[in-house]
């Protein structure tokens, strides 16, 4: 996943048969994130659903070791945070009358990927062994 020639650093999280990539971002100013340092971390509002493997780059990238180990140690917490955000997003689609719901729908990336509010997102499951993690040097975590 690339933003103007710069790769996103992402955590691939399999949920209910779908793969969601959650980018690491700086300057996060909302609560829908897993924070690693200050206002930096995994931003659930910018998560995307990977529908085609050709959109996953094999380009290696690095993050600070401290941040990597914090993310690696909190896979279940990150999954639960994304699952909670998916429910917030679904609720916003079903009840878009508040300013908070409109902000979620306007600024979140999921509007491009998730089906309408009639779909059920209740049976989300965490499959840690299906995820692929990258070590602090960009290589596979052995």
Structure description:
The protein is globular and about 40 Å long. The longest helix has 20 residues, at 75-94. A hairpin with a 2-residue loop joins β1 (2-3) and β2 (6-7). The two termini are 24 Å apart. Strands 3, 4, 5, 6 and 7 form a five-stranded antiparallel sheet that branches. The model is unreliable at 117-142 (pLDDT under 50). It is of the alpha+beta class. It has one domain. α2 (75-94) crosses α3. It has helices at 65-73, 75-94, 99-107; strands spanning 2-3, 6-7, 10-15, 18-25, 33-37, 40-43, 48-50. The protein is built from three helices and seven strands; from the N terminus they run βββββββααα.
Q: Report the sheet-strand fraction.
A: 15-25%
Secondary structure tally: strands: 7
- How many domain units? 1
As a whole number of angstroms, the C-alpha radius of gyration is 15 Å
Mean pLDDT over all positions:
75
Helix count from the secondary structure assignment: 3
Name the helix and strand elements from N-terminus to C-terminus, one letter apiece.
Answer: EEEEEEEHHH
Measured between the Cα atoms of the first and last residue, the distance is: 24 Å
What portion of residues is helical?
25-40%
Largest sheet: 5 strands, antiparallel
Secondary structure category: alpha+beta
Shape: globular
Uncertain runs with pLDDT below 50, 5 residues or more? Answer: 117-142
